[in-house]
Amino acid sequence: MKLSWLLPLTAISILGFCESSWAARLTYWKFNKPLSRLELITDEGIQPEAHFLSNPSRVIIDLPDTKLIKGKRKKTARGTKFIREVRVGQFDRNTARMVIELGSQYTLNPDNVEIRSFSPTRWFIQLPKVLPLDKIADPGREPIAIDVPEAESSPSFPPSERPMPSEGSTPSSPSSPFPTATPLPPVKAGGVVVAIDPGHGGADVGAVGIGGMQEKVVVWSVSQQVAEQLRRKGVRVVMTRSGDQEIDLEPRVSMARRIGADLFVSIHANAISMSRPDINGLETYYYGSSEGYRLARAIHKRLLSGTSLKDRGVRQARFYVIRRTSMPATLVETGFVTGAQDAARFRSAAQRTKIAEAIAQGILDYIQRR
Ligand SMILES: [Zn+2]
Prior knowledge:
With 370 residues, the protein is of the alpha/beta class. Helices cover 21% and strands 29% of the residues. A six-stranded antiparallel beta sheet has the order 6-7-8-4-3-13, with no helix packed on it. Strands 15-14-16-19-17-18 form a six-stranded mixed beta sheet. A hairpin with a 4-residue loop joins strand 3 and strand 4 (58-64). Helix 1 crosses helix 6 (349-369) and helix 3 runs antiparallel to helix 6. The longest helix has 21 residues, at 349-369.
């Protein structure tokens, strides 16, 4: 969907620092005007809460146990006739609040506000199309809760300590790391089909790190090489984007389903505050299924042995592309563009090739073992 109805809106960012040891930080926010979404980077462990108020229509995002830096307690981005302004402030002692206020003649359907968690520290609040007030029924003054995904501050205990479900186990309690066991589809006559999903693209550059390094550029280089390595081994590979294009998350998932992919591997680079170059390392994510976990584990293991990436664990998270895919899926955060060691690794063509070779080898390990 092209959001041409949205006129330019100044994007601004703030950097915040903890005032006390327990408070988490909102380290970055930006209103992405072409995509009509609010992008946040927070410390881990924050669970944004969102609701909707009318008269005037506004989407409110509260960040509990979060403090803004002194002197930057209030910050406003001026908007357009559709979106009047975006502001951030300290709502009370422990809560930072962000407000996206629409123009007085406009509203939106709160059911279509989507909050996506890309990692425990990265959030997108995607707005639906803004509608003229007289076109829809007034949702009233009552606050309406918006469904928010859990921020996965997931267990990262050693995988050997994880309880693995037995074959054919039935869905267990919701607290289980494996609520469902997804059986692998039978091997196709034409061989295995792997969907490689290079994160971001086009106007969505992803994370921006040291020296202006863009996530979309790094992951494109790595993803292309993963695809090439796999094709050499006779694996059929389909990329969810074929160049520097912006593709939403849903089409990535539906493409994998349409082509009958047996596996889905999403490739990303991580980010945290620019003031933390000391944070580096590999995180590999799965959601729900034991097969997803096995795939994540196979890739993670090869990356640790094939590169000098620091081990930040195989983790469970509710990321869209691994939650909505119907085949075993994993999302690999191949290092931090904001990390001194990882950014240096990403800058080296030879090191990017090593990352790609390790991911490809991990995928092959998984295919051979299934
Ligand atoms: Zn990413």
